[in-house]
Design goal:
By secondary structure, the chain is α+β, with helices and mostly antiparallel strands. The chain folds into two domains: 83 residues, Arylsulfatase, C-terminal domain (2-Layer Sandwich); 103 residues, Arylsulfatase, C-terminal domain. Helix content is 29%, strand content 41%. The protein is built from four helices and 13 strands. Strand 7 and strand 8 form a beta hairpin. The protein is globular, with a radius of gyration of 23 Å. It comes from Roseburia intestinalis. InterPro entries: SpoVG (IPR007170), SpoVG_sf (IPR036751). It holds the Pfam family SpoVG. One of its GO terms (biological process) is division septum assembly.
Length: 214
Amino acid sequence: MLTISKGFATVVFGDSFKITNIAILENKEKGELFVSMPRYRSNERDEKNSVIYKDVCNPITAEFREELYTNILEAYAKIREPEKAETQTQGKTQEMPEFSVTVTPYEREGSNIKGLARIYFENSFIVNNVNILQGKEKIFVSMPSYKTKQVDEHGKPIYQDVCYPVTKDFREKLYNEIIAEYEKAKDKSNEKARENAEQNHGNPDRDKKDTPFR
């Protein structure tokens, strides 16, 4: 399908969390507009050996998908008409959005990635590819990002977050929740590994008690 890029949209949840790089595309054959969520290149390939791209974030219910995409396309239509562009107003300040997180511990030799997280907003929208990274002194949260064409003073490429908390209060609340869930998941994973080891090799302390000789 041939497409033409017509613009990019930004969505904000509760004045607290921003989603950028939402593409508005046009199907060149049908002349219809549609919304494409930000994507990332995965390590997977399809049956034709082509690279598979996955959404960084996306609606997870049909109702919210329709509502979100309709609002984006309506906003785009308004700014395309000069006489309507000035009628756009900023909504009232909203409370922090409700959210939940899931975390999977991740351990690989030579990698500073310690966990992968997902954020669910009000059971309607999901953000994938949130990393828990090991810093010099402690772990920290890294939001999904993309490589820009800019470089820093050392010549290294600059990365820009695709989605991120807007306010300090929500950032602290979100990141603290992610790290807390990571610690819980890590403890649970370690406990399961210990139980499996005991089943396969026995419990040294227990076996020692059952031994008649010291």
